[in-house]
Amino acid sequence: MTALQNMTTAAILVVALLSHVTVAHVYSQCELANDLKNRGMPGSIPDWVCLIFAESSYNTAAEGHLNSDGSVDYGLFQNCVVTFCSPSHRSTAGIGVDRAMLGGGCNVNCYSLLDDDISDDVACVKIIYAQSGGFTAWNGWKSSCQNGLPNLSGC
Ligand SMILES: *[C@@H]1O[C@H](CO)[C@@H](O)[C@H](O)[C@H]1NC(C)=O
C-alpha cells in the first residue's frame, strides 16, 4: 500500500470506531435516575434503576440474553424481541440502523434500541409495562429487585 492508501485506511478505521463509540452510552446510577424522572415513567424510579442494572448494567448498547424461546433482548431495558420489536434488519453497512424496518408491539426496530437515544426504548417500555404486568415483565426485576432497591436519595 502507498502512504496515501495507508492514511485513508486509518482514517476510515477511526471514523468507524468513533461512530461505534457514539452510539453506546453507559449511565451512572444518578444520571439514569434523573433522566428517567424527566420521562414520566410509570412505577417507581428505584425499581427502574434496579431493573436496568440487572438487565443491562446501565449500558444502552447491551445486546444479549438469549431467551428460552429463541429471542434476544436489546438495549438498556432488554426489551423482548419476539413480541415487541423487529429483530431481523440490522443495517447492511454494519453501522446504524435501517429505521424503515419496524415491527413488534412497539413498532420499532430492535437495533434502534441499542443507541444512546433512549426515547424509543422508553416509549416501548411504557407499552410493555402496561400490557405485560408491570415490572414482572422483566426477569431481571423479578430476580434482583423484590428484596431491596437502590438508595437514590443522594441523587
Ligand atoms: C440513603 O442515602 C442517604 C445518603 O445519601 C442516607 O442519608 C440514608 O440514610 C440512606 N437511606 C437508607 C435507607 O439507607
Outline:
This protein has helices spanning 3-23, 29-37, 45-56, 81-84, 119-131, 139-144; strands spanning 63-66, 72-74, 79-80.
In what order do the strands lie side by side in the largest sheet? Answer: 1-2-3
Helix content: 40-55%
Q: How many DSSP E strands?
A: 3
The third-level CATH topology is Lysozyme
Main sheet record: 3 strands, antiparallel
Number of helices: 6
Named once each, the bound ligands are: 2-acetamido-2-deoxy-beta-D-glucopyranose
Shape: globular
- Compute the average pLDDT: 75
Number of domains: 1
For the record, the CATH class is: Mainly Alpha
Q: What is the succession of H and E elements? A: HHHEEEHHH
Oligomerization? single chain
* Helix and strand composition category: mainly alpha
**Which segments are poorly predicted (pLDDT under 50) over 5 or more consecutive residues?**
7-22, 91-97
Gyration radius over CA: 18 Å
Strand proportion, as a percent range, falls in 5-15%
Enzyme class: hydrolase
Signal peptide: 1-24
EC number: 3.2.1.17
Protein name: lysozyme
